[in-house]
Amino acid sequence: MNTTFIIQGPLTSDTLRSVKICGKHGKVIVSCWNTDDPLLLQKVHDFNYCKVIINTLIKGKNYNFQNLSFQLESTFSALEICDTEFAVKIRSDEYFTRLYPIIKSVEDHPRKISCCNFLFRKKLLFHPSDHMFGGTTENMKKMIKEAHIACSSKEKNEKMTPSTFNLRQDYAPSVLPAEMLLCLSWLKVNNDDIALKSNTLTMQDFIKQYRELMKKRYALVRLSDLGNFLVRFKTNNDINGPTAFTCEKQVLDFGVESITSLDELDSASLKFPIAASY
User: Fold this and answer.
1) In what order do the strands lie in the sheet with 229-232?
2) Distance CA 172, CA 261 (A)
3) 154-170, pLDDT tens digit by residue?
4) pLDDT tens for each residue of 183-240
5) Which domains does the chain have, with CATH numbers?
6) I need a surface site. Which of 44, 65, 180, 221 has the fewest CB within 10 A?
7) 177-186 pLDDT, tens per residue?
8) H-helix segments, the chain
9) Full-prediction pTM beyond 0.85?
């Protein structure tokens, strides 16, 4: 087995399902918290093929918008003990029953980050999915570490603005969401200066270079190829809207447009200023 699946976050009943599925396709590390349900924790320990990391939850240390610091800490602690060439991160409250496509993608594209298309947004820059993503273990470490450095540089109540990465203010929301921070961190460790160019290039030229760069640094796996699945959107601001999806059509019909191909990242899809459309 050349791939480790990192199931990250607070334990849920869906964590147990995901451990069983992932265990058939690779090694498994569950990275959870000392505040999790002891009964669920014991059930995870009962899987003899699964390594378990219990992280200590400390609130209020530094920047943690969308619990990003928690995600980074628990993911990196798992990557540090990962002994396979490739690693794939999955949220602990989600699952996918067909994992071969993501395994094949990370193996076929070792210089890229592979991710699913859920919330890989068509109308936002630098917004690939962070619900399932993977690559070489070393690349994953570099990206997560760079994002964690950015978070650690901010106090709890400070904002992580686009200027943190030299990105034009109107090209991103006023506070960077988790997906953008991870993406910009991945580009930074590859010495890609596309964000800085946003201040000098015309929008048309910038979008052209952005699109080419995303194709160079990312590979896409569609939800429709991942079998039965459950993905969540807990931050949905519409109180009557969905907070979970189980088929790709539901996702594509939803107002927050997700791409099905990297070719959809074109200038016609984008609306500026970005902050007004997030």
Assistant:
1) 95-96, 229-232, 244-245
2) 21
3) 887 788 899 999 999 99
4) 999 999 999 989 999 999 998 899 889 999 999 999 999 999 999 999 999 888 888 8
5) 3-277 (3.90.550)
6) 65
7) 999 999 999 9
8) 13-22, 38-45, 68-79, 100-108, 137-152, 178-189, 194-197, 203-217, 248-253
9) yes
DSSP 167-181: --GGGS-SS--HHHH
Beta bridge partners of 210: none
Torsion of CA 53, 58, 62, 68, to 10 degrees: 40
Helix (H, G, I), strand (E, B) or coil at 101: helix
Q: Give me the amino acid identity at 251.
A: V
The number of CA neighbours under 13 Å toward the Cβ of 275 is: 10
Identify the helix (H) or strand (E) that includes residue 51.
Answer: strand 50-55
Percentage of residues in the chain with pLDDT exceeding 90? 77
Separation between Cα atoms, residue 270 and residue 173, nearest integer Å: 13
Task: State pLDDT tens for residues 117-160.
Answer: 999 998 899 999 999 999 999 999 999 999 999 988 888 778 88
Residue 27: strand, helix, or coil: strand
- Contact between 90 and 106 under an 8 Å Cβ cutoff? The reply is no
